[in-house]
Amino acid sequence: MTKFEITILGCGSAMPTTLHHPPSQLIDMNEKLFMIDCGEGTQLQMRKYKARMSKLHSLFISHLHGDHIFGLPGLISTLSLLGRTADLNIYAHKEIDFLLNPLLTYLGSHLSFKINLFPLNPHSEEKLFENKMMRVTSFPLKHRIDTNAFLFEQKQSPRHIKREMIDFYHVPVKQINEIKNGADYLCSDGNLILNEHLTTPGKPSRKYAYCSDTAYSPEIITYIKNVDLLYHEATFAESERNRAEETFHSTAQQAAEIALAAGVKKLMIGHFSSRYNETESLLKEAMAVFPNTELAVEGKIVSL
Amino acid sequence: MTKFEITILGCGSAMPTTLHHPPSQLIDMNEKLFMIDCGEGTQLQMRKYKARMSKLHSLFISHLHGDHIFGLPGLISTLSLLGRTADLNIYAHKEIDFLLNPLLTYLGSHLSFKINLFPLNPHSEEKLFENKMMRVTSFPLKHRIDTNAFLFEQKQSPRHIKREMIDFYHVPVKQINEIKNGADYLCSDGNLILNEHLTTPGKPSRKYAYCSDTAYSPEIITYIKNVDLLYHEATFAESERNRAEETFHSTAQQAAEIALAAGVKKLMIGHFSSRYNETESLLKEAMAVFPNTELAVEGKIVSL
Fold this sequence. Notes:
Oligomer: homodimer
Strand content of chain A: 25-35%
Strand order of the largest sheet of chain A: 6-5-4-3-2-1-18
Shape of chain A: globular
Largest interface: A-B, 29 and 30 residues
Largest sheet of chain A: 7 strands, mixed
CATH class of the largest domain in chain A: Alpha Beta
Number of helices of chain A: 11
CATH superfamily of the largest domain in chain A: Ribonuclease Z/Hydroxyacylglutathione hydrolase-like
Radius of gyration of chain A: 22 Å
Distance between the termini of chain A: 10 Å
Order of helices and strands of chain A: EEEHEHHEHEEEEEHHEEHEEHEHHEHEE
CATH architecture of the largest domain in chain A: 4-Layer Sandwich
């Protein structure tokens, strides 16, 4: 199966602690790295977990709170020191200019590559990136400032040819691609050979949804139905539900309720408040609602 | 003795590694913390080494290369989240505006304290800060961009009164301060009592010099004569002397030559290039010239 791996570089929140780093994740899909969020120290975490800087394809920034962006200047500078030449695409709210413009002026001719900023739409679902293998879409969350979720999808692969049947029916090479994509085959004698006799199913699509930071928001369920893995913030325990509402964050129980309603296969909770010295109690709260839940932790790798 | 303690938070250079963090140090003088340089992740290092954010008095930034400043946005944001109200004085080259101004606009009314920027003079020696107990001065180094060194001095304390002699000569209370500061005492019978009969010496002054980043620069010797501890960068080994010259950095041997010529009591070398997996060889080179040398390492605390 093509690689589809999520590495947690940081799963803390605004206030850094000795337990958790500010938010950042890497999606490794077929040897390309897609980064979500870039809190302070993200490049140091990449070093620690031996993620290769040269594989970094593009960056997706959920929102412009400091704990999600203050690692950008250091990361961009280091990529330049390493001599990167490929464009770096950054998907973020357009106000990130406040950080990027002074940095670009500061680095000036020292910057070895071009940065392309693709502004996120904070109001509706939008396709951000697509190639033959994958698709990334974005949709709005409910936070104090414009915040977007990201859905990473590895597409269903083409159906697999049954070589012996292709030979048996003398299917011409030029029709193979259509058949891989589901077409039936009309023989020269007029017989129609159904696709299912000629192929076996390809790999199903796999989906990862990243939803942080957000208040409890059932509106997102429609976008994350049946995903293989949902990362949902769980900044607080249920005992701090009022605080969660005030700050537009979620409790662990609320994250689990969203997972349950969306019928996801697995839930991972993160973005833990600095007040928690341990997160097992958050896990317990979530598992009471949605048993297939796990805790994010720095260095964790999940393969889909 | 009044506390005078240096904590190494980071002693790497431009490229982060798994061995060293970007440059930052804390000077703890009498329960106030003075920070020198603030590379990415400095606030995380403060957490790790249990340095209290509330004790942070002011910041001294040697120059504006990213590895010395990219920790500022995160640190300033966190101080604000913690509700700091005291002004924060930052001593740095005036071009740091490129980073501070957008940050101040971004934080806006969320910033709970005032930041005062004191521009460094990149061309000559200058007193930056002084109170009864200490003095901080700055002088130019020789780097690719304007770069300043910092000299932290804990002043000599007043002489100690010999209580029994003060009583014996019936010295009036109002003259005690003058005598602590070295004055003799004229008795009512016309006898002059020399100060050395009335007092014992106070604590001598102690000095710490921070010299990073810099090419080999004998011009600095005059400023660092006889300091108790000299931190001098040693980015490269002698085998990379050409590279050191090209990039306006020093070799370990050059750092030791400066220490020897300045008659310092102890040398600490740091700002190691990312190419070195071990720094013992740099230590060996320096010790061949100046035996009382030690290596900087994250978490090290030196008491003067």
